[in-house]
Design goal:
This protein is α/β, with parallel strands linked by helices and 293 residues long. Helices cover 35% and strands 25% of the residues. It has 9 helices and 14 strands. The strands form 4 sheets. Strands 3, 4, 5, 6, 7, 10, 11 and 12 form an 8-stranded mixed β-sheet that branches. α1 packs across α2, α1 crosses α4 and α5 crosses α9. The longest helix is centred in the N-terminal third of the chain and has 27 residues. The protein is globular. The termini are far apart.
Length: 293
């Protein structure tokens, strides 16, 4: 019943929820009505489109945490009983940054089942508190109670341009000089896009975005092809395409990113998750390998 409620709450649509759950819509409707009867209050507004109301939002948080604890308990019992080494679930905005440490982790612990979830930073706090994932990596702050974090990396973010671009020979450029430049940007909510918007807003400017997408890895390729310029983290300068673009410093102390790893403060991480946390937190991002000692 509770898991069915969460699906209806997420979709706010009975027929789509019934399809996802593979149950008959009348049966699902009766289940939700029975739950509301037990609680003594409606969880959804039904005037027009189905909408989760304030009581429903409050209840959803408790249900997510309760089911998260139940799942965590099952994993803990399985681990204690020796049924496998465990599972670790990592969420990140992009996994391009983590290819090397994840590969090292898998080589060291081939018996661990690793689940990777691509997720916007805005959804990470709820996923951690509900224990849908064990660890989250984000390049922007996650503001929520009940989370712990460790800073992994603080680095400069550069302007990347085609090699034949008029700015290509410059050592640095101001934000004002970038007004009117065609930008290849990530979608709204991604840290690169938020940084771009924030830099321009501080100068009362709006960036000219000619391409906006979810495929962050394609930004460099589109820049190389001459479609525009873009903000690219310093870590990307190690990639094979480094010689195909010009790297220019942006004259702003705010043009940086801080990569952090988050987990639930009260959650009991599996041995596999604790090992991954240690691997990622101990990674030497400058050398591209684990830190010695």
């Amino acid at each position: 019943m509770l898991r069915q409620f969460l699906v209806v709450a997420r979709l706010e649509h009975l027929s789509r929820a019934a399809e996802e759950l593979r149950v008959a819509q009348p049966s699902l409707s009766r289940t939700i009505a029975r739950l509301e009867g037990e609680l003594g209050t409606p969880l959804f507004d039904r005037a027009g489109r189905l909408r989760l109301n304030d009581a429903g939002k409050l209840f959803r948080g408790h249900v997510e945490r309760a089911l998260g604890e139940l799942d965590a308990g099952r994993r803990a019992v399985a681990e204690a009983a020796g049924e496998g080494f465990g599972t670790v679930r990592l969420a990140s905005e992009t996994f391009l940054t983590f290819t090397a440490p994840l590969a090292a982790y898998k080589r060291a612990h081939p018996e661990v089942e690793v689940e990777l979830h691509q997720m916007p930073a805005a959804d990470m706090a709820r996923a951690l508190l509900a224990q849908d994932v064990d660890l989250c990596a984000a390049s922007q702050p996650i503001h929520a109670d009940g989370l712990e974090s460790v800073r992994l990396l603080d680095e400069e973010v550069w302007l990347a341009t085609p090699l034949d671009h008029p700015l290509a020979g410059r050592a640095s450029v101001t934000v004002d000089e970038l007004a009117g430049q065609p930008f290849i940007a990530a979608h709204k909510g991604h840290w690169q896009r938020r940084l771009l918007d924030r830099l321009f807003a501080a100068r009362d400017l709006t960036p000219k975005i000619v391409c906006e997408g979810d495929e962050v890895g394609s930004i460099a390729e589109l820049i190389i092809a001459g479609f525009g310029v873009g903000l690219v983290p310093g870590l990307a300068r190690r990639s094979a395409s480094v010689a195909s673009v010009a790297w220019i410093a942006v004259d702003s102390p705010d043009c940086r990113r801080t990569l952090s790893l988050y987990w639930g403060a009260g959650s009991r991480l599996s041995a596999a998750a604790r090992l991954m946390r240690t691997t990622i937190a101990g990674w030497d991002w400058g050398a591209g390998e684990p830190r010695e000692g």
